[in-house]
Amino acid sequence: MTVRVSAILxxxxxxxxxxxxxxxxxxxxxxxxxxxxxxxxxxxxxxxxLEHDPDxxxxxxxxxxxxxxxxxxxxxxxxxxxxxxxxxxxxxxTPGTLFWILTNGVVRHxxxxxxxxxxxxxxxxxxxxxxxxxxxKSPQ
Amino acid sequence: MILAVIxxxxxxxxxxxxxxxxxxxxxxxxxxxxxxxxxxxxxAGNDFLAYWTEFEYGATAWWTTxxxxxxxxxxxxxxxxxxFRWENRFRLLQHEHFINxxxxxxxxxxxxxxxxxxxxxxxxxxxxxxxxxxxxRKEHKNELELKLLLSKTxxxxxxxxxxxxxxxxxxxxxxxxxxxxxxxxxxxxxSVQRCSFCPENFIxxxxxxxxxxxxxxxxxxxxxxxxxxxxxxxxxSDWNLRLSPGFGLNDNSHRFLLRWGVSRxxxxxxxxxxxxxxxxx
Lengths: 140, 281
Fold this sequence. Notes:
By secondary structure, chain A is an all-alpha fold. Chain A has eight helices and no strands.
């Protein structure tokens, strides 16, 4: 029995470490951003219903800090696990595209689906992302 | 120690369910430690308090693995460690769909004294937990459990349905069960301020779960069923609290189950472990 339990625990530990070591690293190349192009046209053209909500950016910033900053960086500048959201590809993406990515995740690359956040919260995060200053441009 | 020094809190939005699973997995690299307790009334015996600790780890965005350690205290009897469970959940589809399936596989090594009632299967009923611990602990169960988790979130509502098939590896028939849950945050938009009592931090819902007999007698005959309102409070201080009073729906069921739980998620745990083993991330 002890041997069986030890074997199971060893297997579990090995699996966890292997999964972590083999997890797809954040890529700085365009392949991560290529996911943006996969958003269906119907999703990409959706308008942000909170576009004119004066609180959306601030609330989205709070949500970003809670749920996104750990991988994408406090300033959305990117990290080892996830790409920069200040990149041109992200900043030029439509709100609908960003919403679609948030909703569906990029599971293959380690980004979980975020549909567990209610729709308005996902749109608040989109509002925040669109308010950021794109990389290479000075804040106005 | 590692957790305290290295890991960062992740402040995930936790589901309020205690028995039902939705299709959301643990974030990759995050470890969630949870403690749950079930107080159960027992008409023909002593009431009990059963508890379990969960260590839930997001191995990847499509695989979550979890270890449970179970125990129980039966009043006027004794306190026992009753076994462990190893659970794995696999997301089957990459994108969100109309219904999102997740495959659940679990191995259990528990004694007959286990009373956490994390799932109700086959002909499980109140009579199964009436015996004294000294006798019940002598029975050992090695069980394999499969579940198909189906879940959908729409306009803030999550609807989840779990179908369960379990087999005691000691040549027992397959047993079946179900769990259904619905839940919704009290507010869908986030407030600007960081706050503990904002309505979006509370998720309320309801669960219905029970047994469906076994391979030879499938159906509702001689099974037990529960209806349980649930509420979760996601605190900005990174803790999550859950409470669920459950009510037995027929004479085979415990009349009342009070479940509560507390959990905390630690992100960066996987990276820390990987570094210990010489990995880069």
